[in-house]
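User: Please run a holo structure prediction.
Assistant: Happy to. Please share the sequence and the ligand.
User: Here you go; the ligand is zinc ion.
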Amino acid sequence: MRVSKFTTGGGLRAVGLLVIVGLFPNPFPPAAAQRITPTAEEPKPPITPIADSHQPALSERRTVKVPILVYHHVSQSDPEGSSAVRRLTVTADVFAQQMQYLQDNGYHVITFADLADYFERGKELPTLPVIISFDDGWETQFEYALPSLEKYHYTATFFVVTDYIGRAGFISWPQLQTLLTDGMRIGSHSRSHLRLTKIKDPEKLWDQIYSSKTILESQLEASVEEFAYPYGSHNAKAAAAVKQAGYRAGRGCCSGIAHTSSDVFTLKAVMVPNDMEKFVEYIGASGVRTARTEHGTVPPQPGSR
Ligand SMILES: [Zn+2]
């Protein structure tokens, strides 16, 4: 196992968790609702009343272009396996080139919290902001992407499926701790990677969204503020639950790089190809739409790569 010695501290910022209750009608039954706020706080007024003219500082509708890069597998050599898996694989060399490209072309890596702060509090963003994220918690991300992230001191968010942690081919709990020590962020990608829009039972939906957060936070002793929808698939109920669970941002399906204030729980994403030319095209100013959503029809396979 890898021993960490590199610390940026970026991922350890203690950002207070805001449990935003009351903005939406509670979509959960009373039994589930009682588990919403572990601190049993009284419901607080909405923090971000986007359309509330009484709070002008927060009501401004803002738009910003931020490519949110999404990686799945990172391979040491040329991608192998099915065409679906190959499409979700970037080699370590190409990944390193992409990180170099960001540095050479004036991009500044920010976090989902920075983007949420931009929308909610007017925090300024650097020029050419970009977010780096990884889905599913594949161990290859730890092995082959982390060295480049460390080299450029970039903070990335690793969206993990809590039921998969430690299984063959997936990142383990000690590796997640190393990622945090290295300044990375850990986000939730649900408990078991179900398509949330297919879940009828509100308690099951809540379990996927909220329990995955509390499991990560108690095991890692770190705040978990970002959620990525499995398959990028979301609807109004899922997005409301992500907000109510206390996340600050949700990453969704649709391709593109322009986000507005109302998108903070359904952020767009860029599926990164194993191709520099397309990479440059996808993150460019026009934010060319990419063809695929996350995974397409191929779910991650626990216990195998
Ligand atoms: Zn996934």
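DSSP finds ten helices and twelve strands in the chain.
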